[in-house]
Design a protein that fits this description.
This protein has 283 residues and is of the alpha/beta class. The chain folds into 2 domains: 88 residues, lambda repressor-like DNA-binding domains (434 Repressor (Amino-terminal Domain), Orthogonal Bundle); 177 residues, 2-Layer Sandwich (Endonuclease, Chain A). Helix content is 48%, strand content 14%. It contains 12 helices and 8 strands. A 6-stranded mixed beta sheet has the order 5-4-3-6-7-8, sandwiched between helices. A hairpin with an 8-residue loop joins strand 6 and strand 7. The protein is elongated and about 65 Å long.
């Protein structure tokens, strides 16, 4: 599904809202309940439930808690994930959040809002170092705009500030050998990757040329998790002139399978750090 915000009357649907609504729909159908039953516990109309499940309206915390209780969902991680999604979605709809101080993000704002809400991200990267691990000099070489550089650095706070984001990336060797800026910039970037890979919440693996052809080598993607991996995943991809979302379901699970297969064929974390250090010394 292409990234978009659709409008219907005075309502707007967002990626965050659709993901939240889709999860509420999944929980309801899992226990065999219908919309009128959900509407009754909220003292609301079935139209409101339909709008909530379609991502058309912001969802209040009391409504989420009441629906979770109705559906028999008492796992604090699941409930907390839904509440966090709802909070970020409400902020996004009100144009709040640190990312709104950086208009140059453009349509990346929707991605950054999701990234800010996620508890874990898996990323497969073909041509560039993942944004969450880029050095300021690397970012500056890609786009000499100090506001853009500042926004990229602000995103990286999730890796070091509580609650820390869990990040697992697999990077194709081509992205590491492609010189962005100059040798000094790349040396600093490779050293940064090796250093960040030692953090307990960050895993960095390299897929070398020697691994041969692998499924998934036609498109990079990121998988964001908001509770237990798999339950509320959103997949994000960039293609020429567009951005695509896969909002849960079987297709998201298929991307997760591809990622895990790539990770199995990639170098281990220790081997990857040695590989990065070796490349840095060659520059």
């Amino acid at each position: 599904m292409a990234e978009r915000q659709e409008t219907q009357g005075n309502s707007t649907t967002t990626v965050l809202g659709r993901r939240l609504g889709g999860e509420l729909l999944r929980l309801r159908t899992k226990v065999g309940m219908r919309q009128p039953q959900a509407a009754k516990v909220l003292s609301a109309s079935t139209t409101k439930i339909a709008k909530m499940e379609g991502g058309w309206v912001p969802v209040r915390d009391p409504d989420i808690r009441a629906l979770c209780a109705l559906y028999g969902v008492d796992d604090p991680a699941v409930v907390g994930g839904l509440l966090e999604l709802a909070r970020i979605d409400r902020e996004r709809r009100k144009a709040k959040g640190w990312w709104n101080n950086f208009p140059d993000l453009g349509d990346m704002q929707e991605y950054v809002a999701l990234e800010n809400a996620a508890v874990a991200i898996k990323g497969w990267h073909l041509t560039f170092i993942p944004g969450l691990l880029q050095t300021p000099d690397y970012v500056r070489a890609l786009r000499p705009d100090e506001q853009f550089v500042a926004a990229r650095v602000a995103r990286q706070h999730r890796l070091v500030e509580d609650p820390q984001l869990s990040l697992h990336v697999v990077i194709y060797e081509a992205a590491l050998r492609s010189v962005v800026g100059d040798a000094t910039v790349m040396r600093g970037q490779l050293d940064q990757l090796a250093s960040m890979g030692r953090r307990p919440n960050v895993s960095v693996q390299v897929l070398p040329f020697s691994s041969g052809s692998q499924q998934g080598m036609d498109c990079a993607f990121s998988i964001m998790s908001f509770a237990d991996p798999g339950a509320m995943d959103v997949v994000y991809m960039e293609i020429p002139f567009s951005r695509l979302w896969v909002e849960g379901g079987e297709r998201a699970a298929q991307h997760d399978e591809v990622f895990e297969r790539l990770a199995r064929h990639a170098l281990g974390e220790g081997e990857s750090r040695a590989f990065l250090t070796g490349l840095s010394k060659e520059l």
